[in-house]
Amino acid sequence: MNDVSPPAAANPRPAGRKPAARGASRPSARRRSRELALQGLYEWLVGRADPAAVDAHMREQDGFAQADAAHFDALLHGCVAEAAALDALLARHVDRKTTELSPVEHGVLLIGAYELRHCLDIPYRVAINEAVELAKSYGGTDGHKYVNGVLDKAAAELRPAEVQARRGGA
């Protein structure tokens, strides 16, 4: 197995992430599945590790039992399988090649684009917000702003009726 460690694999609270407030609830099962999928995508993007090995590694992580395993599977395997198509979609909305993005922002954008394209039960604003939260927790200082802008444009392309209705134009 590759020695590339995903962000926060050894530390359940990544650098820059604020500790939960006293009495705060744990992340939802879907949020935990997104966090683990991001860690797995990071491992895949940086080390080009085998997706099956990445999957096995992520299932060994603390907190996997609290994740929505089906959503994790869909995100990790869907993003890997559709990486070229998702990158082509994202390429229309980014200011540089997706390969030039940080692996964290790239992984977050893959997850956000995948959810916008395939998880129609998740409102587009929720998919974008969840991606922004991942970028805040794991990404660079202003990476969340970039993620928000790119996914907002992608949502207008992927879910035009939902975006138009939300913006009051329907």
What does this structure look like?
This protein has 170 residues and is mainly α. Helices cover 61% and strands 0% of the residues. The chain is globular and about 45 Å long. The longest helix has 19 residues.
* Biggest beta sheet summary: none
Tally of domains: 1
Report the top-level CATH class: Mainly Alpha
**Which structural class should the secondary elements be placed in?**
mainly alpha
> Which shape, going by the Cα principal axes?
globular
Q: What's the CATH topology name?
A: N-utilizing Substance Protein B Homolog, Chain A
What is the typical, i.e. mean, pLDDT? 85
Assign the CATH superfamily: NusB-like
CATH architecture: Orthogonal Bundle
Order of helices and strands: HHHHHHHH
* Uncertain segments: 1-24
CA-based gyration radius: 15 Å
Strand composition percent: under 5%
What level of helicity do the residues show?
Answer: 55-70%
Number of helices: 8
Count the E strands: 0
Short description:
The chain is an all-alpha fold. The chain contains 8 helices and no strands.
